Amino acid sequence: MALASAPLASPATPETDRQQLIEFFQKRFPGVSLDDYVYGALIANADGREQYDQIMEFPPFIGEIEKGKKLWETPFRNGKTFSDCFDHAGRGVAANYPYFDEKLAKVVTFENALNACRRSNGEAEFDYADRSTMGTLTAYARSLSDGARMNIRADTVAAQARYRAGRDLFFRRIGQLNAACAGCHVYNAGNIMRMEVISPALGQATHWPIFRGGEELMTFQGRFKRCMEQMRAEPFGYNSEEWNNLEYFLSYLSNGLPLKASVFRK
Predict the structure, then answer these.
(1) What are phi and psi of 41, to 5 degrees?
(2) Residue 44 reports pLDDT greater than 90
(3) H or E element: which one contains 223?
(4) Strand 263-265 to 210-212 pairing
(5) Which of 30, 79, 107, 224 is 20–30 Å from 252 (CA)?
(6) pLDDT in tens, 90-103
(7) Which of 212, 214, 87 lies closest to 148, judged by CA?
(8) Mean pLDDT, to the nearest integer, of 217-235?
């Protein structure tokens, strides 16, 4: 199948894209409920799903999430905490990120919002790529929204321009392998590559950060970096416009699915 004939390849509205992708995967994986796409590649790997369920009963990475909880609850020097920066003390809010900020004219990720909270309370920002600070904080903070359904808006001209930029990157062939994200996560979703089942694009944005093989924390943009390296392409930077737009695009595609953050992956 040529890339040009894939769902989402032709210009359309974000909502049309999302519906086309749902229809595409429902035909590819008949019998899989829409909500189950939060489990990623596990929808096509029964043994892997069984292992996942067993591990999630007593996650080996719970200590890392507890470190994030401590960061979340430790007062800033002015006495406030992260909970004071978000509605409902942070519960359910991650489902609304990323969003396009019309005043800033850019996509704002959840990590950006966490750093904005620190900045507004007189604290130094965390390094976006630092798994021991921003990574563990996000692992806990996003878990406060588990079960909340993704609610990403792209209803202005400027917002849709960033959405399309993310979509264009998703379909662009890059690197020495001349590969595209869609080549794996649309066409080959459910197939095996390097002894791993490839995850579908639908639902990808719902479960980050993940813990690979135990305690190795990986963020969503950390996954972008790993993928681009595997394509033998020069990765964009964490919090770059390119990756924020890509995250925005993928998050919109997962609209309506429940968050399931900080989970085990093989």
Answers:
(1) -60, -15
(2) yes
(3) helix 220-230
(4) parallel
(5) 30
(6) 999 999 999 999 99
(7) 87
(8) 96
| CATH code assigned to 3-59+154-265 | 1.10.760.10
Strands 106-108 and 99-101: antiparallel
Report pTM: 0.95
DSSP H helix total and E strand total for the chain = 9, 7
Is the C-alpha dihedral spanning 32, 34, 36, 40 positive or negative?
positive
Decide which of 2.30.180.10, 1.10.357.140, 1.10.4030.10, 1.10.760.10 is the CATH code for 62-143: 1.10.760.10
Active-site pick, 117, 181, 184, 227: 227
Active site residue 227: yes
52 vs 264: CA distance, rounded Å: 7
* Same fold flag, 3-59+154-265 and 62-143: yes
d(CA 95, CA 86): 12
Phi, psi of 50, rounded to the nearest 5 degrees: -65, -45
The predicted structure's pLDDT at residue 9: 59
- Domain spans of the chain, in order of start: 3-59+154-265, 62-143
Residue among 164, 148, 129 nearest 206 (CA): 148
